[in-house]
Amino acid sequence: MAACASLAWLACSDDENPVDGGGPPPPGLVDPIWEYGRSQGAAITGGYVYRGPSLPALVGKYIYGDYSSRHVWALSYDGTNATNEFLADAPNLVSAFGVAEDGELFLCGYSTQSPTKLRGFSQAGSVYTFTDPFPNLTFDKPIDLKNAGDGSNRLFVLEQEGRIRVFDNDASEDTVITFLDLTGVVTGSGELGLLGLAFHPDYQSNGFFYVYYTIGISAPFRNVLSRFQVSAGDPNAADPNSEKVLLDLSDREANHNGGGLLFGPDGYLYVSTGDEGGGGDPYNNAQNRAVLFGKILRLDVDQNVNTGPYYGIPPDNPLVDNSDGHREEIFAWGFRNPWRISYDVPTSRLWVADVGQDRFEEIDVVEIGKNYGWDCREGQHPYRDSSPICP
Questions:
Q1: Which of 201, 388, 374, 182 is nearest to 286 (CA)?
Q2: Cα–Cα distance for residue pair 53/275, rounded to 1 Å
Q3: CA atoms within 13 A on the CB side of 99
């Protein structure tokens, strides 16, 4: 199987001769609401349903891109049918999207060669272009952007090598502060690094935030979900000694690490995990509900706040009290590398962009207890037809 030499959620052509064909999914599997093939890109970057104030024509549409082709699109979805609209090509590789507290959307441009900028959007008629909303700021390998939801209007940028950087959401801002530095712990290369960030809904009062990162330069790697707390005396500095580890997964491969984090309106923490990597899910993780790889997890972080494992299981998680050895943290399964996830409150939809194997990139609207097909299917097409793990 071929190894991926570049930023992994990208263009990993580690194909294992998938089955040709199409047609409806077998009973028990859910197909994506949208897919695209290699003529349009090689690594989907999930985004957000636009709810910002600046671009009324995009309100209610899911804005997403492709890391390698740099295409950015707007997807309309009414619950049954989806239509796609090309917007523009980004100036740099597209590693993530993020929103400010007012819902305005930004794009993280990525390069391994030099610092890059965050980008905004503007519209003139039917033409969309990218803006430079923070002309005095650049970032090193930015791969996510979040706001704290605390009314401060600050933006937090994850840099792959292990830093969270914070600054005021102001076009004249010329200073970026390091909020948390994990470069002494994190391995930040290829698909490895500081991959995810989410702020607790009560962050303004408890100061809790959650990160997802990788450790190790050779197998076994570790995928870690941890809670940190802001320092008592400085809102722009986290307490590096406050770490509480919720999950620490031993990983045999360097790629497909997922890392999307968000809090839903239910107050629970959602976590996207990759299938552990390698080509074609060689460990059959995505369909195996006894492991946490290749899943969307849902955790109640308001249980066991002061004692390990620092989370509990939501009572309505689909595998609660099962007798089959299935992990109760699982919300949905059948994912390859769900690189970015988001939740649109007005429509109550959880959006997941899952990076494809070698032919199709996909967008899923994820519901509780559903199986989204990998590695039985890639996009809306069969991938395996002879494995005992597939329906």
A1: 374
A2: 37
A3: 23
> Which residues make Cβ contacts (< 8 Å) with residue 172, sequence separation at least 6?
136
Domain spans, the chain: 39-133
Q: Which tokens go with 56?
A: 């009324």
CA distance 328 to 254: 26
Closest to 131 measured CA to CA, from 72, 178, 61, 43? 72
DSSP designation for 279: T
Residue in the block written with tokens 């099962």:
322
Q: Is 205 helix (H, G, I), strand (E, B) or coil?
A: helix
pLDDT at 10: 41
Please state whether the peptide bond connecting residue 375 to the residue before it is cis, i.e. omega within 30 degrees of 0.
Answer: yes
Amino acid found at 324: D
Q: Are 243 and 186 in contact (CB under 8 A)?
A: no
Residue type, 370: K
- Cα distance between residue 353 and residue 368, in whole Å: 16
DSSP 303: S
Cα–Cα dist 146/300, whole Å: 21
**Two tokens, residue 164:** 């969270």
C-alpha distances out from residue 249 to 221, 265, 343, 373, 388, Å: 8, 27, 25, 23, 25
Consecutive 10-residue averages of pLDDT for the chain (391 residues): 35 39 84 96 97 97 98 98 98 98 98 96 96 98 98 98 98 98 94 97 98 95 98 97 98 96 98 95 95 98 98 98 98 97 98 96 98 95 76 76
How far, in Å, CA of 147 to CA of 102, rounded?
10
* Cβ count within 10 A of residue 302: 16
Beta strands 194-199; 163-168: pairing state:
unpaired
- Using CA atoms, how far apart are residues 149 and 5, in angstroms rounded to an integer? 36
